[in-house]
Structures are given as structure tokens and as C-alpha cells.
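Figure 2 data, in text form.
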Amino acid sequence: MKTLIELFDTCQIENIIAGLSFLPEKIVFVGFKETMTEKRKCDLEKFFKMRGSDIKLEFEIVGRYDYIGIYDKLNSIIDRNEDCCFDLTGGKELVLTAMGAVSAMRNLPMLQFDIRADKLLRVNNCNGIPDQTKNSMTIAESVVMNGGAIVTDEKDDFQWDMNADFKKDIEKIWGICKRNCGLWNRLSTVFENMERYGRIDSNFKVSANISHMRNCHQDVFQDMRTIDMLKKDGLIFDYEQDDDILSFRYKNAQVRQCLSKAGNILELYTYKTALEIVENAPDYYDDIDIGVFVDWDGVIHNEESNEKDTRNEIDIVLMRGLIPVFISCKNGEVRKEALYELDTVAEKFGGEYAKKILLTTYISSDRDSREFILQRARDMKIAIIEGVDKMTRNEFATVLRRHTK
């Protein structure tokens, strides 16, 4: 097959799956003017360029209700291109009808992809069509294909080093956190406020006058077991506290990020679990990342620009083949805004095939609030994994695999 004739769809996965599977010399996209926008065409060109592909892309506009025009356009494309094949994936009824008529008249191969099942369907005259290859792409490719860009200079984008020692620290910190997630969140707020209202030196020693810290949760120091566990596990050193001053030293920069940002540890524990799944099953995920900052229009402006970028952070992103999985981690009570944000980001950067997971330790202690969140999640097709703190490592890995399959 030299030329693939593709029906252009608003869902970009449907536009690229056949091209990735067969790598033709040319893809001719046939679509409607209001759908086949310059932005979407540009995004496709950027995507294939990222893949290192030299496939030539052409775009042909047809009228949405002009059957004769569509029929003639398809014949014209075939006349100009030898060894063609039709891909029905993503097509609309009238175009599909015209494509079927042309295929029957000219005995042209016609195929379609079931994207969710990752299966090639041979519709007509496909004896010469090769078997499909395994399709996959990176997180960055998925974002670019859907009109965005990965932001690498975000000031809050901490670069984690998942070395063996830090993986052990994640297990230790999560073990302490899950004993009482509410207490953990309050303790992290205290540690964060110590830096805000005190000082921290280059050796990660932080100290502050307790009376100067706003919103300081005094109850976290009434039960010193959490502090004692942090000291025992070598996560903090040189702990000193009196009526006025609190000071200690973090083990390193990564531990500091875990202890002073309440939500980081659940994200890291999830990220580490996903990495372990791949260690045991190398093909299960094709790409994994944590703390992914995305720019909505794909144009990243510098600080001097008058235009401000619209950006979002996604806690965890996984890729299985061409399907992105967006995971939002909440180490505490879930509010409805978390659902709307996850749904909006997933729809923008993953399209209709994206999977959405809200991962949490608990939803709400209020029964009505809990039922509302669960119902809204069902309406939005968001899977909820609740009670992570009650699961063993193996149980959590099993649940994560099942929801991302």
C-alpha cells in the first residue's frame, strides 16, 4: 500500500492509527472544512514529524451533504494515486456510503480499526493488506497530536530521581502517611509553613519560630509517633523543639518535597507502582510520567510575552498503546472541582478514548457528598480507586492494572 485514503475525524487517534500501522508513502485526508481545521492539520504534521516519519500528508475538503461531490473527489484521489486503500475509521455516514460505493466499483481495499480492542477489521478486498503492527506513542506525542505541548520549564516542576534509595524512602514515607492521612496532611502543612515563615539552608535544615507560623496545627505535635517514625527511618535529623523554635534537617531534597507537599507521596507511590508493573510486564505501559505540565494551545510563550499560557498539571499519565490514562491523586477529601478538572484535561489531550482515574485515600466523611462525587464520576466515565491507604502493595498494583487495562 502506497497511499492511504483517510476520513478526517475530530478524534486524532482515529486519524493516525492506520498511518502508524502501515506507514504508507502518503496519507490523503478527506474531511469537512469545519472539522479539518488548520490547527488540527498542523498538529498532525507535528505529530508525524516527532515520530521521524516522512509520510506525505494531503488534505481534501468535501461538502458535508454533497454525496456526488464526495464520490467524485474519492475517484479523483484514486486516479492520482496508485496502490490505494480506504480506512473507514472515524468516518461519517455520507462519506462512508460514498467510500463503500467507490470501493465496490473499483475493487479497492477497505479496512477499519476497532481502537479500544486494538484490532484491524478487514472490510473488503484486503487480501494484500499486511497484518497490523503494535501501535504505541509517547505522552508527548499524544499531547502534541491533540494540539498541546509538554512544558519543561515550569517552576513547580520538580525532577524526581527514582533511584533505589529513594524508592525505599517512598515506601517508608507512604507507610507513615497511610497510618493517618489527615494527620499527615496537617503535618505537611506545618513543614511547608516552616519554610514560608522561617528559613532553610543549603543542607536542608529548616527552622522557624512556631508563633510566627500561620495555620500551624498544634495537634500534630501532641502525638509524636509520626515525628519519631520520621526520625527512626532517617528521613529527618537533628530534630529540636521547645516552646518557641522548631528545627530539623531533611535527609535530602527529594524527601523534603515529599514531607512538605502533602499530596506528593500518594503521587510518587502510584508512579513507583506503575514503574514496578512495567518491570514485571515490560509491554504493559508504553510511557509513564509524573507531574506532567501541559500547555493548551501548543505555543509556549516566554516571560516577556504579553500572551499568557493556559497550563495544567496532570499528576500521573500512562500510555497503553495509543490510549492515554490520566490519573488524579487526592490524599484526602475529594471535591467536585477535581472531577471537572480531570475530565476537561483528559478530553482535551486524550479525546474520547482517554481513560480517567481519580485515585484517593477517601472521598468524604459526609454521606451525601460521597454519593454526589460517586454519581458525578459515573456520569463523566471517571473510574475511582478509593482506599489506597488500606491496600497492600500487591493489592494496589492489581487494582491499578485492572483499571488501566
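Caption note: The longest helix spans residues 181-197.
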